[in-house]
Amino acid sequence: MPSGGPVPARFAATSVTFVSADEAFVLGTAPCAHAPCTSVVRTLDRGRTWVGLPAPAEPVGQPGLGGAPAVWGIRFATPEHGFVFGDGLWETTDGGQAWIRDAQPGGSILSLAIAQGQVLALTTRCTPGGGCAQPAALERRPLGGGSWTAMQKVTIGNLIDANDLIATQAGVAAVTTGRDVLVTGDGGLTFTVNPVPCPALEQSPSVAVTSPHGLAVLCTGQGYTGHTIKRVYVSRDDGAHWAPAGIPSPDGDGGTIAATGAGQLAIATESAASWLFYSGDAGSSWRIVYTDGDGGMGWADLGFTTATDGVVVHGPADSDGNSTQRPGQLFLTSDGGTTWRQVSF
C-alpha cells in the first residue's frame, strides 16, 4: 500500500468507496496551480486521519455537462484494486499509487459496481456540454481483466445521481431499467427480471438490495414546488411480488434509496434544501433525520458497508479545483442511518 502524502488544502469530495468498515478512498478536487486538480485521499481509520494519493489526470465533472471529458466516480474491490470512472475508465492494482487508463469499455461510464468477481458498468455516449444518449448499456467484465460483455439496455432517469444507479449488498447487484428491475447474484452472469411496482405517474425508481433476495424500491413523481410524491415498495423474491411500505415526506424532487442488511433504509433527496430520511422498520415509517438549507446541493454515493455503517457525500464537487465552490463534505453514520456526522479531511 502506498504510504501517501498530505491531503490538498480545501479538498472537496466527489465520490467515495469503502472496502471495509474503516478503509475508504475518496475522489475529489482542490484548488491547485496546474490543472487538472483531481485528487484521491484514503483513510484507514474511518475518517479520523487521511493521506493524499495520486489520481488520474482528468478533471472532476458531471456526465455530459462540462466542456471537457471528466471523471465523477470511484469504486474499489479490495484495498489494492480499484477504479475511477467517468468519460473513460482508470484502474489501479497497487492501492492508488499508479493509474492505467483502460481502452474499454468505450464512451462514458455513468455508474460502476463490483459484485462476485465481476465489474458491472452502465455505459453510454456523453458529449461534453451536449448531454448523454439514452438508453445506457449494462456491461460486465471479470475483475481480473478481459473483454466487456453487453447485457441489457437501461433507461437512465436522474443523471445527477448517476453513480448511485447500481445497488449492491452482500454480493447481490440490482439496477432498474425504468420499468423493470434486474437482479443478479453472480455478478451479471445471469439475471432475474421483474417489473417495478411504480404507478404510471411515479417512475424514475431507485432500488436498494436489502437481503440476498430482498429489494426496496423508491418511486417518485407528480412533482410540485420542490416536492414529489414518494412511495416505497418491498419485495422478498427479487421483485416477483411487491408490497407497499410507507410513504416518505414529499420534500425533495427525487431520491436515492439505500439499505442495511438489518431492515434499515435511508433516502437522500434535494430541492430547495438537502434531506436525509430514515426508516428503522423496513420502510413502513419514515422520518427526516438531516436537513441542510443549502439550496439543493444534493448527495452522492449513499450506501452502507455493514449493518450499521453508512456513508454519503453532501454537495459533491463537480468542477476542476472546485471552482463552483460545492461543499464536497463526507457524512458517516454508525447506527444504520439514524444519525449522521460530518468528517474532516
Describe the structure.
It is globular and about 50 Å long. 0% of the residues lie in helices and 46% in strands. The protein contains no helices and 30 strands. A hairpin with a 2-residue loop joins β9 and β10. With 345 residues, it is mainly beta. The two termini are 20 Å apart. The model has no long low-confidence stretch (mean pLDDT 93). The strands form eight sheets. It has a four-stranded antiparallel beta sheet, with no helix packed on it. It has strands at residues 12-18, 24-29, 38-43, 51-53, 71-76, 82-86, 88-92, 100-102, 108-115, 118-124, 126-127, 131-132, 136-142, 149-154, 167-169, 172-176, 180-184, 192-195, 206-211, 214-224, 227-235, 243-244, 256-259, 265-270, 274-279, 287-292, 299-304, 310-314, 329-333, 341-343.
Question: Summed up, what is this model?
Answer:
The protein is mainly β. It is built from no helices and 30 strands.
Topology of this protein?
Blueprint lengths: L11 E7 L5 E6 L8 E6 L7 E3 L17 E6 L5 E5 L1 E5 L7 E3 L5 E8 L2 E7 L1 E2 L3 E2 L3 E7 L6 E6 L12 E3 L2 E5 L3 E5 L7 E4 L10 E6 L2 E11 L2 E9 L7 E2 L11 E4 L5 E6 L3 E6 L7 E6 L6 E6 L5 E5 L14 E5 L7 E3 L2
What portion of residues belong to β-strands? over 45%
- The main sheet orders its strands as 1-2-3-4
The poorly predicted ranges are none
Let me know the average pLDDT.
Answer: 93
Q: Give the number of DSSP strands.
A: 30
Shape: globular
User: Percentage of helical residues?
Assistant: under 10%
Radius of gyration: 18 Å
Structural class: mainly beta
* N-to-C series of helices and strands: EEEEEEEEEEEEEEEEEEEEEEEEEEEEEE
